[in-house]
Design goal:
With 233 residues, chain A is an alpha+beta fold. Helices cover 55% and strands 9% of the residues of chain A.
């Protein structure tokens, strides 16, 4: 039976860029689970099945509703144990650390680079909600936030040092094959790639080669996703 | 058969504080493996069994020599599969990220707080080697490095945010029980605790409560370790 995922969309229904939804899409592909994605916008909180907290991803599987990418990945491992995303309790713990580091350290840096691009790709009805909530968070206009992105990207590349060190030696974070930790990290890069043409990584960064490998997985699932569409601003 | 670990010692043979050696001591206790530790000093590179690269930990198990804490933890999981430290390939990958983050982000900050205290606890014959190599690394005298430790500790507490978030919800990083990821992180705190009375954590930080739980594991193995001995300076 096909799973359903409520997935953030831009102005174009096919433009999907949420870093958290991408974790789930890659995880479902990893397990070979058929997935239907339902385009959703920030201002459609009432359209989400319950229980959920007004954000995506929300997954529906055989009538069961699971919100939050971390809970969804763990749910998938419990219900569909083949091809584990984590595979052990210590793995869940260490992956949780990676998830939190990604969200607390990496995402804010990437956000300071691409947030104005995200805004420009949104459906008209989402734009003022997005601008207001993000400008409140940053205490600056979106235009002011991204003004320093040439400096921000240097901080991002510095923060990526542990990732870079691993990927000098391993094909994927998880070893010879990609798994949960890779999908968690990949979401950030796919988010940026889908909304912005600003390059986060130098081409000789092992993280860049890893990103290319991730894009190619599952018949190029992430590579085929519409990237940085130019919507009317 | 008892395993042997070459373990960094201070002026006092019983004073053991290497963050990397503590990872191994906790990991062996986790697996219930009997371990004999051999005190070793920085200036005794020739005393280490080969192959090793002049640093500890070096583990000897049935004639096999394994150097480097990460390699040792993985060796232990392979040879003694019960009570896994990691337990899956994705776990090894995510734990490797935690290890690198610990070494590249956390250790340098803690080092800037305790490095002068480490020096003061060393055997006389290790002191000039240690001072010279560390002062070269920092480009400052040890005394200058620690002068700003009131500021450094704030940066450390900020960097610990992902750890703190996990430990708000979980008893150990690895879940209900401690495992590899916990021992990797714990080494840093045990290092600081064994050489310095400078408090790294606020008492209401969930990381502090976790540290207390870690100290109590294995009949208080880490808690019983001589801490912050006052050697003659």
């Amino acid at each position: 039976m096909t799973l359903k995922l409520y997935d953030l969309a831009g102005a174009d229904d096919n433009h999907r860029f949420s870093p958290y939804c991408w974790r789930v899409r890659m995880a479902c592909a990893h397990k070979g689970l058929p997935l239907e994605t339902i385009p959703w916008r920030f201002t459609e909180k009432d359209r989400l099945p319950q229980p959920s907290n007004g954000t995506v991803p929300v997954l529906v599987d055989r009538g069961e509703v699971i919100a939050d990418s971390w809970r969804i990945l763990n749910f998938l491992d419990q219900r569909y144990s083949a091809d584990p995303l984590f595979g052990s309790e210590p793995a869940v713990g260490a992956a949780l650390f990676l998830k939190l580091w990604t969200e607390q350290i990496l995402n804010p840096l990437v956000s300071r680079i691409v947030v104005r691009d995200v805004w420009s790709k949104l459906a008209e009805r989402d734009r003022s909600y997005f601008r207001e909530s993000r400008e409140k968070r940053f205490g600056q206009s979106l235009e002011q936030v991204v003004e320093n992105r040439d400096q921000t990207v240097l901080r991002l590349r510095e923060a990526l040092e542990p990732v870079r060190t691993i990927l000098c030696e391993r094909t994927f974070l998880s070893g010879a094959s990609a798994a949960g930790p890779d999908y968690i990290l990949f979401g950030v890069f796919q988010w940026a790639r889908c909304v912005s043409s600003f390059p986060l990584l130098l081409n000789d960064d092992p993280t860049y080669a890893w990103q290319t490998r991730m894009l190619g997985l599952f018949d190029g699932l992430a590579d085929r996703a519409p990237a940085a569409l130019d919507q009317a601003e």
